[in-house]
What does this fold into?
Amino acid sequence: MKYSFLILIFSFSLNSIFSQETSQNNTKSTTTYYLIRHSEKDLSNPTNSNPDISEKGQERAEKWAELFQNINFDAIYSTDYNRTKQTAEPTSIHNELTTIIYDLKNFDFDKFKTETKNKTVLIVGHSNTIPVFANKFINEEIYEQIEEKNYSNLYIINISNNKISHNLFKID
It folds into this structure.
């Protein structure tokens, strides 16, 4: 819970900092990306290539939604796997949004950045894709693939007037 409080304080701080980055017509000029890996998956059937999230994974998905409760997302993206969609679902419900499915094989990163400019977006992905997204948003190779047993990374990236800030938090 203390982590939730810290993230909320951080989020509010960012909002107040970047609220100064609005134009005179009150249009938002900051893009914020929240990136998370899917929650713990059910490993009871090793042959299942598309498992659901486990009970612990469902608890984590609810925890993400609680953590994000004061963030008004414009869009929520997920790959078309049970575990990513189920991780995104509680936050999508809270924001009254339909989760948008993205296809990693046909993903146009530049088009995505253009379509999400000046929006607040949650992206749910995988241990090998979320760091790639983060690195592309910040135009640097900083973040490495997430370890298999790590489901707690939260990447927050803000882009405002070509200024980029980014942080990685561990939310257990």
Notes: The radius of gyration is 16 Å.
